[in-house]
Design goal:
Largest sheet of chain B: none
Low-confidence stretches of chain B: none
Low-confidence stretches of chain A: none
Oligomer: heterodimer
Distance between the termini of chain B: 47 Å
CATH topology of chain A: Amino acid/polyamine transporter I
Shape of chain A: globular
CATH superfamily of chain A: Amino acid/polyamine transporter I
Number of strands of chain B: 0
Largest sheet of chain A: none
Helix content of chain A: over 70%
Shape of chain B: flat
Strand content of chain A: under 5%
Structural class of chain B: mainly alpha
Order of helices and strands of chain A: HHHHHHHHHHHHHHHHHH
Radius of gyration of chain B: 21 Å
Mean pLDDT of chain A: 87
Distance between the termini of chain A: 71 Å
Number of domains of chain A: 1
Amino acid sequence: MNIWARLFYQYRKFVKVIKLYFMIAGPGLIVMLADNDAGGITTYAVTGSKFGYSLLWFLLLLLPVAYFVQEMTVRLGAVTKRGHAEAIFYAFGSFWGWFSLIDLLLTDWLTLVTEFIGMTAALSIFGIPSVITILVVSFVMLIMILQGSYWTWEKIAFLFCAVNLVYIPAAFMVHPSVNQVLAGTFIPSLPKGGFTNEIFFFLMANIGTTIAPWMIFFQQSAVVDKGILEKDIPWGKVDTFIGSFFTVTVAIFCVIVTGTLLFGRVEIESAAQAAIALMHIDKNVGTLLAIGLFDAGFLGAICISLASSWAFGEVFGWAHSLNNKIKEAPWFYAVYMFALLTAGAVTLIPGAPLILITLFVQVIAVTLLPAALVFLILLLNDGEVMGKYKNTRSQNIINITIVALIIILSTLYAISALFPNAFM
Amino acid sequence: MRFQIFELISSRFNKFFENTFREVREINKKYRVPHTKTTPLVKISLLMLRVYLFLLIAILFYKFITLI
C-alpha cells in the first residue's frame, strides 16, 4: 500500500471515529458546558477580579472531580435504563425518593430563577428590557423542545454550547502574560496574604459550581432518553471527559479575562458588573463576556428545566421523552414550561428578594447534593444491578474520596453563606 | 352562568387533586419496599444521611429564628 492510500485510510478512519463520537456524544458535553451556568460564570468572573491568576491551578483540579462523578451517571443510566430519580425510588424506597424529587424540584426552580437573573442582566447591558428577554427566551426554549426529537434538541443545544466558548477568544484579546498564566495554572500557590476566609469561600464556591445536583439527574435521564446502551459506555465516558475538559477550559479562560483586566483595578460582585466594567476598558471583550453570560444562563435553564421534567415523568410514569409529541407527553412539557415561566415571572417582580434566592440556591442544593452523591455511590456498588459495570475498588477509592470532600466543602460553603462570620 | 363556570373549574380542580393523590398513593405502594440489598454499607450511609439532613435542617431553623 503506498503512502497516499495509507493516509487516505487513516483519514477515513478518523472521520468515522469523529462521526461515531458525534452520534454518541451529547449528554456529557452538554451537561458539562451547562455547568458553566450564570452562577458559574459569576463565580469565575469574581474569582479572576479578586485573585488574578493565582487560583487557576485549583480549577484544573476540578476536571477529574467533575469527570469521575458524572461518569458514574453514564454507567448507571446505560445499565439500568432508569433516570436518577426513578433509580432512587426503586433502590431506596419512597421516603428517599420523595425527598430527592421534591428537593430537586425546589433546587432546580430556584437555580432557574438565578439563570433568568443572569440572562436579563446580560441583555440589559445592550438595553433589552427584562420582559422581552424572558418572553423571547421562553419562546425559543419552547420551540427547542416542541420539535419532537431528542437528537434535534441536542444539536440545537450544541450550538449554544459552542457560544459558551466565547471566553477563549476573549482571553486572547486581552493579551495576558502567558508565563503568569502558565505559572498560575500549573504551580499551586495562594494569593498574597495567604489562606484567608475569603479564599476559602471562593474555593468552596468554585467546587459548588462544578458539581450540582441537577447535573446528576440531567445526565442520567439524558443517557436514558438518548437510548445509550451498555456497549456505548466507553463513548459516553469519552463524551463526559471532553465535556469536563471544556467546562474547566471555559472556567480558566473566564478567570484569565477578568484576572487580566480587572484584578487590582475594579471590585465586582457579579458577571454582569464585570461585563460593564470590561466595556469601559475594552468594548469587544465586555460584549463577549455579556454574550457568554446570557448563553450560560440559557444553557443552564434548558438543562435544569429538563432535569425536573424528566424526574417528574420517570416517577409519575408519564411519557417523558423529548421524542414524544406534545399530545403524547402533555405533563412532561407542562412541567417544563411551568418551571420556566414561573421562574421568569419571579425575576420580573419588582423588589423580589433575588439575593436571598441566590443564597437559598446554595443552601438547598447542599441538602440534596450529599444524598444524590451517596445514592450514586451505593447504586454503582450494587452488583446485582450493575453487573460488570459496578464500581471497581480503585473507582470506589477515587469516587468516595471525591464525594466525601464535596460533601464536607459544600456543607461548609452553605454554612458560610448562611453565617458569613462563622469561620472568622 | 357564573355558577356553572365556577362549578366546572372546581370539579376540574377536584379531579386533578384526586388523580394526583391517587397517583402518589400508587407510587408509594409501588416503591414501598427498597430493592437495594441492605448491606451494612447501605445501612450506615442512610443513617448518616438522616443525621446530616437533621443537622442541616436544625441550622436552617436556627438561622430562620435568629433572622426573625
